[in-house]
Amino acid sequence: MNQKIAIQVDDLTVAYNYKPVLWDIDLIVPEGVLMAIVGPNGAGKSTLIKSILGIIDPIAGSVTIYDKPYAKQRKLVAYVPQKGSVDWDFPTTAIDVVMMGTYGSLGWIKRPGAKEKKASLEALEKVGMLAFKNRQISQLSGGQQQRVFLARALVQNASIYFMDEPFQGVDATTEIAIINILKELRKAGKTVVVVHHDLQTVPEYFDWVTFLNVKKIATGPVKDIFNDDNLTKTYGINYKVAVSK
C-alpha cells in the first residue's frame, strides 16, 4: 500500500455490560479515501467511530491517527455526530454553531475573531446555508441542521472527517449537496469515514467500504469487495444488491 495510513485500529474490543459490541477489530484506512461503514443495526458502526475518537473506552486494543494516539492528533480530526445525539433546542444560531468548529485551533482563552467569522460564513455558503446564518438551529429543518453541522466540520479544516449517518432524515437535494462536498474533500486529499445505511448508493458515493457486524467482515476498495458474498456474510441472509455498473 503506497498511500499513507490515516487511521489504524488494532485488536479493538468494546463491550456494554460484558456483551461485546465490537470484537477484535483490525482496520487500516488509507489517506484520501471516502469510506462507508456498513452493517445491520447493532453491528457497532457508531461505536467504532466513537471508540476511534475516544468517546467510548475499549476494553482492549489501540487506535492511531497518522501513527499517533488520537489525543495527540485531535486537531487533525472533525466529527459530525448523529442528528439524534444533538440537543437541537439549545438556543444558538447557525453561525454560532459553525464558529464552535474554530475553537480547537484557538484554544480556550482566545475567542473567535474576524478571521474565524469569515471562515464560518464561507463554510455556511459552501453548504448552501448562508441565508440562514442568524436562524436558531431549532427552527431549521432536519436537512438544514445537518448542513450546519457539516459546515462546522468544514471550518475545522481537518485531515480526517468522521460522519455518523449524515444522510439520515435529509431530503434528496441535501443528500446530493452533502455527498458532493464529501467528494470534494476526498479530491483535496482528505480522509472521510461515513456510517451509511443505504447499500444501493455505496458504489456511487464511496470508493472504500468496511463491512461490520460486531466483527470486521471485510474492508477495501468498493470495486473489489462490495459484492453479494460480503453482503451475505455481513447481514446473515442471501443478499443481492442492484449495483449499476
Automatic annotation (TrEMBL):
Keywords: ATP-binding, Nucleotide-binding, Transport. CDD domains: ABC_Metallic_Cations. Residues 7-239 form the ABC transporter domain. One of its GO terms (molecular function) is ATP binding. It comes from the Bacteria. The keyword Nucleotide-binding applies. Gene3D superfamilies: P-loop containing nucleotide triphosphate hydrolases (3.40.50.300). InterPro entries: AAA+_ATPase, ABC_transporter-like_ATP-bd, ABC_transporter-like_CS, Metal_Ion_Import_ABC, P-loop_NTPase. Belongs to the ABC transporter superfamily. This is Manganese ABC transporter ATP-binding protein. It comes from Patiriisocius marinus.
